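Format notes (please read before filing issues)

Several people have asked whether sequences and C-alpha cells are stored in separate files. They are not. Every record keeps both together, in the order shown below: the sequence lines, then the C-alpha cell lines. Line labels are part of the format and must not be stripped during preprocessing.
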Amino acid sequence: MNAITRRLETAADTQALGEEIGRTLTAGDLVILDGPLGAGKTTFTQGLARGLQVKGRVTSPTFVIAREHRSLVGGPTLIHVDLYRLLDEDATGTTDPLGALDSLDLDTDLTHAVVVAEWGGGIVEQIAARCLKVSFDRETAVLEDPNSEARLISWEWLS
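Then the structure lines:
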C-alpha cells in the first residue's frame, strides 16, 4: 500500500485526521509517529483518542514515558508511549522496544490495546510484523510560506 498524504492547516485539522484514523484502529494495532519536535504528534494522538473513545486528557508522554487511557465504550485501551525515552531509559542497555514496553508494568495486555509510539521511526521492524506509520512534515509548508502553520501528514500500513 502506498502512503496517503494530507496537508493540514491547523491543529484542529490534525486532531480531526487523528480522530478519523482512530475510528479504524482495533486492539493489537501499533501506530508509529515519526517527525520532529513540535510537528503535531501529540495533537494527532489527541484526535486518535477521540476516535477510540478513551478517557483522560492526552498529553505528551515525554516525562512519564507512557500513559494509559481506558476505553469509555468497551473498546481497546490507548497506550501512548515516548519510544525514544523508553529505549533511553532501558536499564538493560538493549534496543528491544517490545521488551522495554513489557517492562513498563502496564495494567493492560498490549494485545488488547492500541499502542501509539512517538519517535518510533527507524525501529518499526523490531516491534511488530504490521504497523501504521504516520510521518509528520512541518518544513515543506514553511518553505513555501514562512508564516504557514500547515503540516503534511503521511500514513501507511507497513508489514
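For reference, the curators noted about this record: The beta strands are 4-8, 30-34, 66-69, 77-82, 113-118, 131-137, 151-158. The first strand starts at residue 4 and ends at 8.
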